[in-house]
Design a protein that fits this description.
The chain is an alpha/beta fold. The chain has one domain (about 5-190, about 205-265): Alpha-Beta Complex (2-enoyl-CoA Hydratase, Chain A, domain 1). It has 13 helices and 9 strands. Helix 1 (about 30-45) runs parallel beside helix 3 (about 80-100).
């Protein structure tokens, strides 16, 4: 598979995967998600890779799913078609990052919104620049019940997740750091190097031991029921795609809804 919407680099035992649709704020088209998943699987299977960085080229990590494409190709999806599309590309692809048997780091600048928030938070660690911001406004903009993978309360705490989702507002880098959702905040100029330094430090450790540590740590949220909760939310999210509220937004155009939200009130 040759990639057109992502870029992959090796730095010794660190593999850096970058979303590369910077002119579209790294909006996640079907092609981009398929390429990212392919790269994630290959990084997982490649024994020379010990740590994986997922970043984005340009000013923004990712503005989320590509809604123009969604409007053109998927506006008339049946329940069955949407279930197939979203369970594979949004849910399964995300969990593949979560379950990767080696440490992952998200490198985040600018917008980390909705589908972008989902992908970044699948990573074990997050390093972000001072200009990064995090949000999931999709109920406010689209009348959809948040993103498909409701990772939010697991990475930011229940009360903050409620605030962010209820208001549709943003969490800035400093706040994200304060509540423990991101590990490090650095200047924009220093983001790539700081993320790489952290990755190289992690890559020094014996990889099989690291794999076991990650497995054990991820069993904590599993024991708390995370997977069941995520799976249950996915079902409700699908319900929200067939509500009267969603139908009205869709008729006015998904992209127009985003624009209204940007220019309008919060
Ligand atoms: Zn959806």
């Amino acid at each position: 598979m040759t990639y057109e919407t992502i870029e992959v680099e090796n730095h010794d035992a660190v593999r850096r995967i970058r979303l590369a649709r910077e002119n579209a704020r790294n909006a996640q088209s079907q092609q981009l998600l398929d390429e990212l998943d392919d790269a994630v699987i290959k990084a997982g299977n490649d024994e020379s890779v010990r740590v994986v960085i997922i970043g984005g080229k340009g000013d923004h990590f990712s503005a989320g799913h590509d809604l123009k494409e969604a409007q053109q190709k998927r506006a008339d999806f049946t329940v069955e078609e949407r279930w197939e599309y979203e369970s594979l590309r949004y849910f399964d692809y995300c969990m593949r990052i979560w379950d990767l048997p080696k440490p992952t780091i998200a490198e985040v600048q600018g917008a980390c919104v909705a589908g972008g928030f989902m992908v970044a938070n699948m990573c074990d660690l997050i390093v972000c620049s001072e200009d990064a911001f995090f949000s999931d406004p999709v109920n406010h903009t689209l009348a959809a019940a948040a993103t498909e993978v409701l990772i939010h309360p697991w990475v930011m705490g229940l009360r903050k997740a409620k605030e962010m989702l209820y208001t549709g507002g943003r969490i800035d880098a400093a706040e994200a750091h304060r509540i423990g959702m991101v590990n490090r905040v650095v200047s924009r100029d220093h983001l790539e190097q700081a993320t790489m330094d952290l990755a190289q430090q992690i890559a020094k450790a014996p990889p099989f031991g690291m794999r076991l540590i990650k497995k054990s740590l991820n069993r904590m949220p599993d024991a708390q029921g995370m997977r069941t909760a995520l799976s249950a939310h996915f079902d409700l999210h699908q319900l929200s795609h067939v509500t009267e509220e969603f139908r009205q937004v869709k008729e006015q155009g998904l992209a127009a809804a985003i624009q209204r939200n940007k220019s309008g009130s919060k």
